[in-house]
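ok so i was messing around last nite and threw this chain in just to see what happens. nothing serious, just curious
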Amino acid sequence: VQLQASGGGLVQAGDSLRLSCAASGPISSNYYMRWFRQAPGKEREFVATIRWNIGSTYYADSVKGRFTISRDNDKNTGYLQMNSLKPEDTAVYYCAVGLLPRSSNGSWGQGTLVTVSS
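result:
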């Protein structure tokens, strides 16, 4: 499956943004969709994951309570709702799908840039 991430942009601290990750076809029910991010000069880090069939979720501590991951099975699309954005959330955000909840294995999208100004 091919993934297309979108929705990034330039926002101010405290604003919200919703990222989308559209898959080219159905995602296997036992797969996970995850979001990762990579800030300039830093290593890529896990952000959130959702199990595609049952919708169970898990978040990194740094975004817990501010970000919400969801999916629309009919549209083969996942979302990352980001609220109360902080400058430290500035990064390229990537979506990926695979068998494991937080693994980097699997199919990846191209990334979308989120910039949060203070």
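not much to say yet. The CA atoms of residues 5 and 21 lie 4 Å apart.
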